[in-house]
Amino acid sequence: MLIEVNSVSKFFGRLKALDNVSFKVGNGEIAGYVGLNGAGKTTTVRIAVGVLPPDSGDVFIDGLSITREKKKASERIGWVPELPIFETDFKALDYYVYLAGYYGIPPGEARRMGREALEMLGLGDALNTKLAAYSQGMKKRFALAVSLINDPPNFIFDEVLNGLDPKGIVFFRDLAIKFKKQGKAVLFSSHILSEVEGIADKVVFIHRGKIIGVYTMSEILNMARPSLIIKVDRVEESVSILEKYGRVETKGEHVVVSGLNTSPSAVIKELVDSGFNVLEVRSEERSLEEFFFNLIKDKGD
Ligand SMILES: Nc1ncnc2c1ncn2[C@@H]1O[C@H](COP(=O)(O)OP(=O)(O)OP(=O)(O)O)[C@@H](O)[C@H]1O
């Protein structure tokens, strides 16, 4: 329902791993948490689920403080850690049934649920494999299955797509859509922006422990659209026409139209029809990753 990270700071020795981090994930919202390796994602996640105390600030899960009402708050949040540890001789399905017992789910029902979830996550052939023998990616998928058992109203997934095959990614996307409809709040971290496209509604960007921007996915896609660089005989006059098609900047003899909202040929046709002499046209793709790196360059340091 609601995850609120409120002015959280954390030091490791002299390193300020988190510097006054604040953001919210609301009802039915799926937020990506994107930053380079070492940006502070896992530290934020560990503080938000209550396994690491912040030096200052707090996290509220449905209004409950994770530092002051840890038990109640953590019951309301499901978590898949970056590197789940399951050093046990239990077989996977048996362990799932054992964990489901904590939530009062009877063994028969738990076995059915477990088989279904693990099969969906591509672990159908490894239901009776000992967890200690699972690879890191398999442990991650197992942790995802386990986080779903008690159906909490909020979720935090740390680099969950990493370790999922294409079928697992589809499973995760469908799950996110279902959660959205149910009004759950979901935060999932990734160091690759294009990985969160198609799943996240908004993206919280973190760099060197600081939040450097929060954008909706449609704002990002808008800004990541291609740019058109045009050399035209009457630069200043062309601006009023080109403004309809994106953000316009003049650079000497060139006009740059970024965030292009139509095809390059439609733009050129209008210029030519209006009597301009178009001398040169170049289109530059701006990928999601470029958007991310530009954001870091502009706001990061
Ligand atoms: N327990 C710790 N002791 C000392 N330094 C730590 C500890 N945990 C994290 N750090 C440091 O804090 C910074 C943030 O790390 P964090 O793991 O939160 O980043 P991340 O964004 O999750 O990166 P990754 O994608 O690589 O997991 C890094 O510089 C990291 O080395």
Automatic annotation (TrEMBL):
UniProt-listed Gene3D superfamilies: P-loop containing nucleotide triphosphate hydrolases
Gene Ontology molecular function terms on file: ATP binding; ATP hydrolysis activity
Keywords: ATP-binding, Nucleotide-binding, Transport
CDD domains (alphabetical): ABC_DR_subfamily_A (cd03230)
Domain ABC transporter: 3-233
Family, per entry: Belongs to the ABC transporter superfamily.
PANTHER family the record matches: ABC TRANSPORTER, ATP-BINDING PROTEIN (PTHR43335)
Protein name as it appears in the record: ABC transporter related protein
Organism this protein belongs to: Thermosphaera aggregans (strain DSM 11486 / M11TL)
Lineage: Archaea, Thermoproteota, Thermoprotei, Desulfurococcales, Desulfurococcaceae
